[in-house]
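Cont'd.
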Amino acid sequence: MTAIRRRVWLLAGLTLALFAVGAGWFHARDQHARLQRGAAMLQRIDAAEWRLNETVLRLRYGLLNNYDGANHILGDLRSMRAILGRQLDSGDPESGAAWGSYDRASRLREEDFERFKYDAAVIRNSVQYFANDADVLAALPDSRRRAALQDEVMALSDAVMRMALAAQPGLEEEIGLRMERLAPFVDGLPQAVAEDLRRLLRHAAVVRHRQPRLESVTHALVQSPARDDLDRLIALNRRQVGEEIAAEARIRGILVFLAAVMTAGLLIAATYYRRERERAEAGRRLVASLTEQAAVGMIACDRDGRIVFANPYACAHTGWTAAELAGQSLQERLHAAAGGRDECPVTAALRAGSGYTGETEFRHRDGRGFPVEFSLRQAAGPDEVAAVIVFQDITERRLRERDRRLAETVFRASQQGIVVTDAKGAIQRVNPAYCAVTGYAEDELIGANPRMLKSGQHGPEFYRAMWRALDETGRWEGEIRNRRRNGDIYVQWARVQAIRSDEGLHYVGIVSDITEHLLARESMERMTYYDALTHLPNRVLFLDRLRQSILQARRTRRSFGLALIDLDHFKNVNDTLGHPQGDLVLAQIGQRLAAIAGETDTAARLGGDEFALLLPDRRGPEDLARVAETVVAELGRPVPVNGSEYRGGASVGMTMYPYDAETAEQLLRNAEVAMYRAKERGRGRFQFFVPEMAETVVAYMRIEIGLRLALERNELSVHYQPVYQLPDRTLVGAEALVRWTSPELGPVPPSQFIPVAESSGMVASVDAWVLESACRQAAAWQGLRPGFRMAVNFSAPRFNQEGVATDVRQVLDRTGLDGSLLELEITERVTLGGGEQARLVMEELKGLGCRLAIDDFGTGYSSLSYLRRLPVDTLKIDKSFVDGLGTGDAEARNDRAVVAAIIGLAHNLGLDIVAEGIETEPQLAAVGEFAPEVGRLAIQGYLLGRPVPAEEFAARYLDRPRP
Amino acid sequence: MPPSTRPDPAIAIAVLAVCAAALLAYFAFAPPEQAIRAPAGGSSGAGAPAAPAQGPVSPLTRPVGLDPEKVRLGRRLFHDKRLSGDGTVACASCHDLNRGGMDGLPQAVGVRGQKGDVNTPTVLNSGLNFRQFWDGRAADLVEQAAGPVHNPTEMDSNWPQVVARLSGDPAYAAAFARLYGRLEGPAIQDAIAAYEQSLVTADAPFDRHLQGDATALSPAAAEGWRLFRDLGCVACHQGANLGGNMYAGLGVMGDFFRDRGRAPTKADLGRYSVTRREEDRHVFKVPSLRNVARTAPYFHDGSVATLEEAVDLMARYQLGVRLDPRRKGQLIAFLESLTGELPADAVEDPGR
């Protein structure tokens, strides 16, 4: 700092010296210039002086007789003299004196010159007179006297002329003498001549009188002391100019030297200053960046509490810009008059001159206050900073604290029990409600595992499921039965949430004691819908479910069965063993019926000894008959009662929706009718409402038996129906359809034996056989028609068989058919009912390269979004829709809309379409209309080709001659 | 903290230092002669020829270099009676340009009808006179202009009074402000002098003769011109103005004042009034003969009514020659050829 100061002083001194010398030099220059101007003026004056002298001499000797020029020169001299006087004005006394002398001499000379002009003019005039009028005696008669006079006059004239030319000693006397000699003659002459002579004499007198004066004036003019004075001035000027030039050169040397020194000094200083500045700048940048990035507010203020600095944090949190804060009073800008205090504690501390640390409230620009924690330090740094305030906006912290307090309050006040455990299940916290629920005190629970509350009512599977859910989804919700401290079992609804945070994994359980609730609900439900004795649904619930089934079956166009069961001879039990024993019998009967019903069917006690079964999943009378037989058999078994047993048996009445009736009441009535018919026929048996149903059952049995034999006797065959591709109707493949011709029954249509096969569990075998035959045939036909595709139906049982994919692969391996040429047709119902399992199987089949088709599409529930998730290639539009096409009635329009919708849907999903069951030309035309829209539309039906045996198919469609 | 984006002052200082050094060096080594300019020429008398004329008389030329604005301003002032004490007399009252630049009276008549001492000299070509007034007491027209204004018998005023009166005239105020900065006595004198310098009556027949026009002079005038030289008139009446460039005593060849018979007046003292030297008694500025035919009466006292008489008197007292009527007529013919023309706008009355 001192070094810089020294340098600055040095530079300042140098600069001053430079300026001083510079000023001196400029003065010298000025002086020089003035002297030079003086010299120039002297030169001009000198020239004018010489010109004047020359002019005077020319005038004197008659070489010039015009005074304008001389006047002009004198005028010039006069004004130049005045200028010179002014130029010398500030000069030295010597020049001043010389000029004064010159000026005086010049003035005298001017006066002399006036005399000169006058005298010269007069003398010239007189000389002129002598030259012109000397012959004054011409008028006189020629005489000796005249001649003598003439001589005198001539002599006088000669003397006057000589004197006029130049003053010679003695001429003046000579002229005077001759004038005196002539004077006496004048009076004797004639008057005119005398007059002329007198005039002549007067002229001579004038010349005689004035010539000496003219001579002396001329001499004075030419030899004027002005000349000497001027020379002196010139010499003086020359000397001074010389001196000035020398002085100037000296000063100039000093000046150049000083300028060089100063320039060097300045350059050094500039370099030094620059380096200092860069260093300071770097420091300032560092400080600036520190204050800019600090996550605390920094405010510096002067002794009066005025802000001199605020960092970005301070600005951001107070809402003011740094410029708006600068110079403003801390108190005024930032003090929030919180708590009625008028003086900001910061300002107070500042005034007190002490440091301070504490919390207060600052005011934001928008007027709201916000809490801050601040510390104030009196600064020992630069004078303008008296104190530095560092503060932190603790609004967030306050909010967090409030939240935490709130959470704590909620936690403690919650009606629901809350328990927090660590990852190992050790309890970390519980709330009072939890303590209340469990009956344990808080300190008994902390550190313990909730396992201690186990009631033993849930198996290990329950807990495994719970933990799995927690591991996989992070949450679990459910009912748990636990044991209180006093041993009571209670039911709680628990929601467990795994919480992963920085502090590791925690589990939070929120439990509500729903024991009371549950008990109340259960009893209500049971009273309303369940039979208290058997715990089976009562008549109300049964009717409700029956109605539900009717609605569902109507929607899905399906059938279902209803069985009404009446115990035979039950009255005897009540009568002989008493009602309590009767109730026990009823309870056991109820259990047996519930077992028969399983999960799909519904068993109910309609009242007294009357029970019912609702069989929604049984499709045909065969099914119903089988269930009825089971019921008769099961209820025929003796029921042990208190040491004795009841062997009543039961009569069963069967009815079917929608064949027998379409309302719940009618169905029940029909079933009752059938049941009484069974009782009439001897109890311990079942009876259909419609008698023909029994025949159907018999026929069914025959088919079932025949089919079993047919598989063994190889009575089944496969027919092939051609499938064409629109729009040009090229043959792309065939659908394999199973055919059965029984030796006993003759040809049995698939619509009759397939349901039997399905319900008797033989369909899988049938399907396997068909698949193998069709694949072999398709492989064989590849030679005739490469790429020939074979579609094979896959029934639900077959599809659900374990290892179906493996079977299919083995079939493909055995037959050598490329998987991509095999299309497996599955019904909607299979895919829909199979859920995730079905999807996995389909993926497996796709893995073999097989194509998958949804058969009978449109009759089930398949939604587009569902289809999208399945790996399906083709949709086969159900024949029922195609049937309606081309007829032109209202239903046809509806069907057409459905078909259009399906085609559009499939097209959007990128699926192929097969329209099957085309039997008429209008239908074909109607379907054909869609072809241009979708591109990949295939068709099949009787119109295009019936299913035929392989040989015939090959002959008819593959151009192979019949063997 | 405001970002420091200003240019580094150190660089600025360095640059300034180098510049200063360069400047100093330039001045230090610059030849000092360059700083010197030739002084303004001290020329006096705008119309005077710079080179001495070879002949005794040179032709008149129009003045050059006059500021036309000053001339216009002077013209207005010259005709302005507010320059006199009672507002009755302007310069032009006595120096009537339509009467040869004078009043035609033996002596001038000033304010309140007061009679002056001398015959009014013509203002025409007065710029060519080497001094002003009969006794030469004023060096030039500028100095002269103040004289009559302050003379109690002429205009009887003073500059403060005149300035006060003229200041009320916006046209004057504007003109003076433009030409002189302010309205004051010296400025008025200068403007009037500028106007008077413009009053040159060039292009007289005699001038044309001098410029080579052989037909400019009548034979009588031409003979008069020869006589004018031969008789010696030209000894005093020479120069462009045929006079006005020297002093001469009245009565070189005879005592004019004794012969005149009247008691000598103050005006008769001539240059003696200025120098108080006995030799200057009755010495007057030789008057110009330009336009002499139009400036009767003659002599300093206006005592000579006609030109003929004046020529006679001059021949007798100054030349000591006898003139017969023929020669006198020829001389007068010559003198009449000296009458020239004023510039077209010289006489025009300035608009008021």
